[in-house]
Specification:
Helix content is about 40%, strand content about 10%. It has about 100 residues and is α+β, with helices and mostly antiparallel strands.
């Protein structure tokens, strides 16, 4: 995972995270394993449907929100430890600006 820190106006900062395709796939798989029991797919017992079937029924991005959150949370405090000029006073505002389907 690579990251970039930019200073913005009004003392705001932007941290851009860039995950490799392997890291992203691991995050989505972790999200699938965590959330598969919540998805109902006809012909499968709840929690037993394969990931591809769930994605077909609910859309390929069904696990993305949880994967994004997990990826951000896994690295946010490490970045704060490395970047001493960042002194957060509030919870971060998380925005996805680009998401490539791999």
């Amino acid at each position: 995972m690579k990251y970039e820190v930019k200073k913005l106006e009004n003392k705001n900062m932007a941290i851009t995270l860039d995950f490799t395709s392997e890291e992203w796939e691991a995050l989505v798989t972790e999200s699938y394993n965590k959330n598969k029991g919540k998805c109902k797919v006809e012909g499968f017992r709840q929690g037993k449907a394969p990931r591809k079937m769930i994605e077909k029924v609910y859309g390929f991005e069904v696990f993305y929100e949880d994967a994004i959150s997990a990826g951000f949370n896994a690295h946010y405090f490490d970045i704060l430890d490395k970047e001493k000029e960042i002194d957060p006073i509030d919870a971060p505002d998380l925005r996805v600006t680009k998401l490539d389907k791999t």
